[in-house]
Amino acid sequence: MKTILLHLLLWPTTVVCGFTSDNSRSSSDLARQTSSGTTTSASDALALMSEAKALRQQASMLQEQLNREKEERIRKEREKVDNLIDLLLFHGTNSDSNTSEESKQQLLHTEEQVAQLLISKRMSYDMVNQCFDRIVELANRPQSIDSCSPLLSLLLDAACQVDCIERKENPNKRWNGRVERDLRKKLFALGYGIRIEDVQKKDAIRSITGERDYF
Hints:
Layout: H1 2-89, H2 101-105, H3 111-120, H4 125-138, H5 150-163, H6 179-190, H7 196-209
């Protein structure tokens, strides 16, 4: 009987002690889990930041490479057009970079010679247009019908000669017969600060979108 009473007296203390010990262990485990989770989240954030930085560096390097390739492509295209201009308009061009514009004019082909080259070299409108744009770009003053570079004048006059040849009699089948006319219109527009290509691009967009000018 005494043994039973003793157990009854000690039971609440034992249970309470057991619960206290279990709660302590649970709190400790939860703290460790929370600490571990915080550490993992911080590590993940640092890893993401490092990866983002590396991606930005790669993107920057790629953009620089694309810019260099674009500049090189433009340089080669300009060099190609410059060589074409020299071929068409000049003979025995002085290779000295310090050659003045005045001395180069002394080495210009005649209008008839340029026209013959336009035919024999099978020049197209696009090729002549590239020469036109490059001459305008290199000119140190605005170009217009009333005041244009002698090089432009020579190129357009020669193009006019080729335009006057009947298409069936022109061995250059790339020639559309409207080169001089179209480039004269372009030169006329330049006199008013208008780029024909920009106008044509806007017209093309408007034809698609249906946009109109409202006055």
